[in-house]
Amino acid sequence: MSPAEGLRGGLRGASRTGLERARPQVSARTSWSLVLLFIILLYQQLATFHHRVYDLRLSYFLSYFVISCHIICHISSFFVIYCHFVSYFLSYFVSKGTRMRSGQDHKAVIWIEGNIASGKTTCLEYFSKTTNIEVCPEPIFRWTNVRGHNLLALMYQDPERWGITLQTYIQLTMLQVHQAPTCAPIRMLERSIYSAKHIFVENLYRSGQMPEVDYAVLCEWFDWITTNMLIPVDLIVYLQTSPETCHERLKLRCREEEKVVSLAHLESIHQLYEDWLIGCRTTLPAPLLVIPADHDLQEMLLQYEEKRGKILGAACS
């Protein structure tokens, strides 16, 4: 039995037990309240018969008191039952929404991180030829076609207007990639929701192209996601590439959206990556493997072959 099933079963059992206990408590309280109310009403009739005003007022007071107590007891009992129902439904959603990564459910996850044109696609293509590895490129096709709108191009044209729109959509799509089910024992992702926040959101904010309120909203979203949702990762591979090399590669591949990307922009992204991964500006969610990636294609393929066992072994350990 998985931990999620155990948690759900335990809370269900607690709910049933609470309901079973609450039912006799309601019946017992009702019976005692009716007996007391009958005695007080009898006392009230005797007081009326003997014209004793003091005793009559006392009987009225006691009647109202017993009725009030009776109502409060019923409310408290129904509140207890309500709490048990809430715990039952919460246990259901927790067991459905939590992905447990233990035992046979564990899938090794590797993030490939690096600057624009650092060689991430080449790395993914090399490992995609390996059996039992699922590679997940960045969902750029979604960012460039949001119901017919090229959001990535709009952001490059006017980052202050479209920065938060693109980064919010990137958070959504990257979260979907992280949470997507897989049958392969190893998943290799191009970038992550962490680099979206620590690199690209930070770059927009620090360069003055994102208002502080937009930055605060994205930070709040990121903090909530990473605190309340499981973002699996076992190894971070950083393709450490100089901004100059990235700039030369950008010129060669000629993607339409990247024509406006300057060397200064690549230098900013590079420095943020160095601060995050090498300078340890924040605690990393997994061990780090740095691969120098300024070399040509053939040399990089040789490096991947040499480090293949280290990458796959570290992820599966």
From TrEMBL:
It comes from the Eukaryota. Pfam families: dNK. GO terms for cellular component: mitochondrion. Keywords: Membrane, Transmembrane, Transmembrane helix. CDD domains: dNK. InterPro entries: Deoxyribonucleoside_kinase, DNK_dom, P-loop_NTPase. One of its GO terms (molecular function) is deoxynucleoside kinase activity. The keyword Transit peptide does not apply. The chain crosses the membrane at residues 31-49, 61-94. Residues 110-311 form the Deoxynucleoside kinase domain. This is Deoxynucleoside kinase domain-containing protein.
